[in-house]
Design goal:
Length: 163
């Protein structure tokens, strides 16, 4: 069974924003081996990104502010037959809670997964498994829909275009 998603969409933005509402252009690029030294549980990250990085079928990407190195968030995706599977999405530890540095990180990473889906000819289709308590949140913020049971969710073309 896929790992359940626990990311919180704090804000849908065109880029990430600081507490004052200033926008920052971002880049999403593949994680390299050097990045794995930073994204550790001992540094406050929730998931084992080294393990995720080493799974051959998955690709791990990082979101950074353009021309900066600090990782603002991570996403693990896999190209399936006809859609993109989102395995994990995580804000950097400094982007959690009321004192977070930036809003919009998780939303931008999900939008990236939708972009990858379009670029692969999948019409924006993205799927993931949600924790039950977050299903309504993903419906309301991402336009996601339940596609199987109480936790399996999908983002379809119209919602993907909006993101």
């Amino acid at each position: 069974m896929p790992e359940q998603q626990t990311f919180h969409i704090d804000k849908i933005t065109n880029s990430i924003e600081d507490a004052a509402g200033k926008s920052f252009d971002t880049s999403v690029v593949r994680v390299c081996k050097e990045d794995l030294k930073v994204v550790l549980k001992k540094n406050g990250w929730l998931f084992n990104w080294k393990k995720e990085y080493n799974l051959a079928e998955r690709k791990v990407y990082k979101l950074t502010i353009e021309n900066e190195n600090a990782i603002q968030g991570l996403i693990s995706i896999e190209t399936m037959s006809g859609y993109i599977e989102m395995h994990l999405v995580e804000n950097a530890p400094h982007n959690y809670g009321i004192n977070k540095h930036f809003a919009g990180v998780a939303g931008n990473l999900v939008a990236f997964a939708c972009k990858e889906s379009f670029e692969n000819g999948f019409d924006g289709y993205v799927a993931f498994t949600s924790k039950t308590k977050l299903v309504e949140h993903y419906i309301n913020t991402l336009g996601a829909q339940l596609i199987y049971g109480r936790e399996r969710m999908g983002i379809f073309t119209k919602a993907a275009e909006n993101l």
